[in-house]
Amino acid sequence: MSEATAPKAVEGPLNFLDERLGSTGFFNRNLKKVFPDHWSFMLGEIALYSFIILLLTGTFLTLWFKPSMLEVVYDGSYTKLNGVKMSEAYASTLHISFDVRGGLLMRQIHHWAAILFMSSILAHMLRVFFTGAYRKPRELNYLIGIGMFVLGMLEGLFGYSLPDDLLSGTGLRITQGVAEAIPIVGTYVYMFLFGGEFPGQDIVPRLFTLHVLLIPALILGLVTAHMMIMWHQKHTAMPVKHQTEEQVYGYPFYPVFMAKTGAYFLFTFGVLALLATFAQINPIWLFGPYDPGAISAGSQPDWYMGVLEGALRIMPNWEITAWGHTLSLNVLIPALVPLGIIFTGAAVWPFVEAWVTGDKRAHHVNQRPRNAPVRTAVGIAAVTFYGLLWLAGANDVLADKFHVSLYATTWFFRVTFFVGPVIAYIITKRVCLGLQRKDAEIVAHGMESGTVLMSPDGEFSERHDPLRDERRAVLLSKENSRPEPPATDANGIPAPNSKGPLGHLRSRLNRAWTFDDIPVEEHEHDHGHEVESGREPEQLNH
Amino acid sequence: MKRFTAWRRRPWAGYAVVLAALAAIGVIYAGFSPRTDRAEAANATQAAADLKNGQQLFEKNCASCHGLNAEGTKDAKGHPIAPSLLGVGAAAVDFQVATGRMPAMNPGAQVPRKRPIAAFDTTIRTDYEDEAKRKAAEAQKAQAEKNLADLREYIAQLGGGPSVPAASAVDPTKGDVALGGKLFRTNCAQCHNFTGQGGALTGGKYAPPLATKDVTPTQIYEAMLTGPQAMPVFNDTTLTPQDKQAIISYLVQTREEPNPGGNGLGRIGPVSEGLAGWLVGLGLLVLAAAWITAKKPKKLKKS
Ligand code: HEM
Q1: Is B289 in contact with A39 (Cβ distance < 8 A)?
Q2: Phi-psi region of A181 (alpha: psi -120 to 50; beta: other; left: phi over 0)
Q3: Minimal CA–CA distance to A232: which of A138, A129, A347?
Q4: Assuming Cys at both sites, which of A242, A518, B14, B54 could form a disulfide with B150, CB separation 3.0 to 4.6 Å?
Q5: pTM of the shown model
Q6: Are B229 and B205 a contacting pair, CB within 8 Å?
Q7: Start-end ranges of CATH 1.10.760.10 in chain B?
């Protein structure tokens, strides 16, 4: 199959191109590129396709949206706002929603796609993290991914602020507060950003330029780099039968993967169209135009900014006043620390891990989360940390819907902010080790068959069936940890990497990473009842 | 017809019409006044009976907390159990009883809205098919309305206070909706949310949702006028009666408006949107991914 040539429909255009560009080799090679098959590998694709949809719908919106803070008096189809003073930005968004054919649908697709874009990136990043797909040689692509997430947050925040409704204005007010809280230069930064007193005339046009030009261009550049690096390095694969570090096992790009991914684009588009048709999003006409004197209960940002909101809400009101300056810790700490921990932590993690484990090899096969308990536990602790802040951002809605006191929720989140991640770490690690133990058990003794046997002398025992080949390959994918070389060799010369305080730290961390590892391996005598399984259908290796 | 029009234009015509009207009024008044005297006498006895009914209802349902003379009660340590009702006015009584808050039941951070007790329940259904059943329900409803009115009157005459607004003052079709929206966002949204979905307050208190049908225009007006519990009072200088009517019109018309662009997701904003995005959006796509990747292409399988 790997020798197969592309069918006529593809061959024709390829020849045409080849005669002009001499590039058939390139196409032929790439059409046969092999893609592994696992549902979690599609998460990144959701992000890619949502991004494309964002570009398309966003361009549609620019045709009518007026990024201007000029005050106008509304007179349009939404009669409940007739005669109300508002900015042109808000009025034009109302116009898109009520007077442009398909405008509301486009706005809703755009916004749902923004939500889906960010959530699929996060889900994709979690997949990459928990399977160790970021390990050498893919660290750069991992960093690009984090960069795209951060840019996506900004892009979403700015887009959200464009319509200049009461909710987005509240968000901008918080942005202004954060800018102003930066020590010493805060006021200048904020004046520079807003071009005058809040909210001023300049902010919406400026955000518009960033939102439709600069940031999409940056994201597009990063997406391209991301895809090219991925293409070049090939996809990682889940540890399944036939998959080795040397060869990707899966389906060729043409026709199988192309059909699948094409269908998946349609799925993504379909789900977004479905949401945008049946679920209302950001009904700005209900929020009203921005008015600095008004504020609403239940003012929340989109979900990807919820962490910041949560941090702001649970932060005690600390301020330090010295030399006539006020240092607003109550704003600075929540604005910088939690996301700082998460993004810096995520960015340095691959390098820290490689340093601790001393593993400098290239990896193309992913790890099962249970087989790297420390990583998995740290990941779940980070998810808990993020998730708690996220929920804290919605504490008033939680208090209202679940009839608990607002004050109680604040304290609940203040305490669990510190305790939750630790508990999550401990539990996750226990669970991983438990699963390793179970795997070791199964590999050593076979599957429990559920059939209970009685021996002639009356003893009961359960029959254990041999493992299927596929299952065995998965279980045996675990790389058992090897003991570190002793700190000093026979001649008393300390091993490299273990000198000095850093070296000691490294050895300690390395021990923490490996000490409770449970080896999963086959024992000789078990080969006895191995069952010969039928030959697997031959599939493409590349 | 022409003659009549010409006649109408004469200078004395206007006076003649006024005179005729006055005469007519005089005659009608003369015809009715003896009976009015009698009606007044009947009214006086009726009023006394109503007041008595109001007092009895108060003593039965309210006095245990608010005191026999509605002067309020305190516990042994001097903390108030229930406030004095002198001067709260008919509007406060109407609001508290018609929304079922009074008589209060379990002590808590806030006395919740609930179904009014039977004696005051004016919301019972009367649309029974069965004639007898319908008559009974209608009678019961009329009695509840009368009870409520008597109780209001009883407490109002103890110390005055704001009275129940006239029906025309709360008509939700008459106010300026755009003004109402603006006033609502500056005065009420910080507790009740943009669209009146309600919200949490400190100390286990909450601003209840206003977006449900059972919060009537009259109750909205009375809430502003009397400021129940944690809600501030919006008297007629902070919000004029026109302002109040505008707010009522905004609230009622907005809650009756269908959602353009699909389900409103509770109209509580980004929290439910984020939830829908993750659960429905990402959820459906993960299912699709699982389905797509589980499908093995037949052709390759064979080769
Ligand atoms: C990663 C990419 C993007 C994200 C996350 C994003 C996000 C958003 C969000 C959340 C809004 C608020 C929508 C609403 O009113 O409900 C918005 C508005 C808008 N976006 Fe984007 N967007 C992206 C890309 C683009 C691009 C590429 C363009 C144009 C070429 C664009 C043009 C617009 C315009 C004109 C508006 C204002 C109109 C309106 O609010 O209805 N966006 N964006």
Answers
A1: yes
A2: alpha
A3: A138
A4: B54
A5: 0.84
A6: yes
A7: 168-256
List chain A residues with CB under 8 Å of B262: 108, 276-280
Residues near B268 by Cβ (< 8 Å), separated by ≥ 6?
Answer: A298, A397, B193, B197
As for ligand 1, residues whose beta carbon falls within 6 Å of it are: A 51, 54-55, 58-59, 61-62, 65, 93, 96, 107, 110-111, 114, 117, 152, 155-156, 159-160, 162-163, 211-212, 216, 219, 282
Provide CB contacts within 8 A for A24, sequence distance 6+: A14, A15, A17, A18
Q: What size, in residues, is chain A?
A: 542
Dmax over Cα atoms in chain A, in whole Å?
Answer: 95
Q: Do B281 and A97 touch (CB under 8 A)?
A: no
Question: Can you tell me which atom of ligand 1 is nearest the CA of A62?
Answer: 35
List chain B pLDDT tens, one digit each, 303 residues. Answer: 555 556 566 666 666 666 666 666 655 555 555 555 666 667 778 888 888 888 888 888 888 888 888 888 888 787 888 888 888 888 898 999 889 888 888 777 788 888 888 888 888 888 888 888 888 888 888 888 888 888 888 888 888 888 888 888 888 888 899 999 999 999 999 899 888 888 888 877 888 989 888 899 999 999 999 988 889 999 888 999 999 999 999 999 988 888 887 887 877 888 889 999 999 999 999 999 888 887 666 555 433
Among the listed residues B168, B170, B172, B183, the one whose alpha carbon sits nearest the alpha carbon of residue B249: B172
Residue whose pair of structure tokens reads 């929720």 in the numeric block: A409
Quick check: A190 and A180 in contact, CB under 8 A?
A: yes
The CATH class of the B50-164 domain is mainly alpha
Task: Give the CA count within 13 Å in the CB-facing half-sphere of A114.
Answer: 29
Taking CA atoms only, the protein residue closest to ligand 1 atom 7 is: A156
Question: Which CATH code fits B168-256?
Answer: 1.10.760.10
Torsion of CA A128, A134, A137, A139, to 10 degrees: 120
Three-class DSSP category at A450: strand
Whole-number Å distance between alpha carbons of B228 and B245 = 19
Does A284 touch chain B if contact means CB atoms closer than 8 Å? no
Q: Which residues contact A497 (CB under 8 A, 6 or more apart)?
A: A358, A503, A506
